[in-house]
Amino acid sequence: MTTARALALAMSATAGVVTVVGFAPFGFAHLPVLTLALLFAQWNAASSRRDAAELGFAFGLGLFGAGVSWVYIALETFGGMPTAIALFATAGFVAYLALWPAIAGYVAVRFTASHSITRVIAAASLWTLCEWLRGWLFTGMPWLSVGYAELPGSMLARYAPIGGVYLVSFAVR
Question: From CA 96, how far away is CA 148, in angstroms rounded?
C-alpha cells in the first residue's frame, strides 16, 4: 500500500470518528456535514470501486468503532461476557456496520463518472439508502444515522416533519 493510500484511509477513518462528535451529548450538529463532505470528495476522486469501498469501510470503522463502544460495555460489564469474546463480538459488529458505507461508495463509483456532480448525488442518495437499509434489515441498527445529529432548531432538522430522519440525513449531504 502506498503512503498516499494509507493517508487517505486514515483520513477517512478519522473523519468517521469525528462524525460521532456531531451527536449527543457533544452536539456539534454541523460536523457530520463536513466529515461526509470529505468522504464524498474522496469517493468523487476514487479511481476504482475497490478504492471507494475501502474508503467507505474505513469511515464506517471510525464512525461505528467510536459510536457503538457501548456494545462492548453491555456485553462485558453487564452481560458478563469474557473480555476477549466481548472484544471480538464488538469488532465483528462494527465491521458489519462499516459494510454499509462501503456498499454506498462501491455502488456510487460503479455507476458514475469520476469528478462529476452525478457521483456526488449518487453518493448522497446511496448513503441515505444504506442508512435506511441498516436501520431496517436483520431487525435494524439505526444508531448513528447522521440525521439524528441535527439538533432541533437547526436548518436541516426542519426537514424531519416532511421525511423523517432519512430526509434529514439526505439533506446533511
Answer: 20
Q: How far apart, in whole angstroms, are the C-alpha atoms of residue 85 and residue 41?
A: 37
Among candidate residues 169, 100, 108, the one with its CA nearest the CA of residue 138: 100
Q: How confident is the model at residue 90 (pLDDT cuts 50, 70, 90)?
A: very high
Evaluate the omega torsion of the peptide bond into residue 82 and state whether it is cis, within 30 degrees of 0: no
Check: CB of residue 48 under 8 Å from CB of residue 78.
no
Q: Render pLDDT for 11-62 as a digit per residue (tens, 0 to 9).
A: 999 999 999 999 988 888 889 999 999 999 999 999 999 999 999 999 999 9
DSSP the chain: --HHHHHHHHHHHHHHHHHGGGSTTT--TTHHHHHHHHHHHHHHH-SSHHHHHHHHHHHHHHHHHHH-THHHHIIIIIT---HHHHHHHHHHHHHHHHHHHHHHHHHHHHSS-TTSHHHHHHHHHHHHHHHHHHHHGGG---TT-GGGGSPTTSTGGGGHHHHHHHHHHHHH-
pTM tops 0.90:
yes
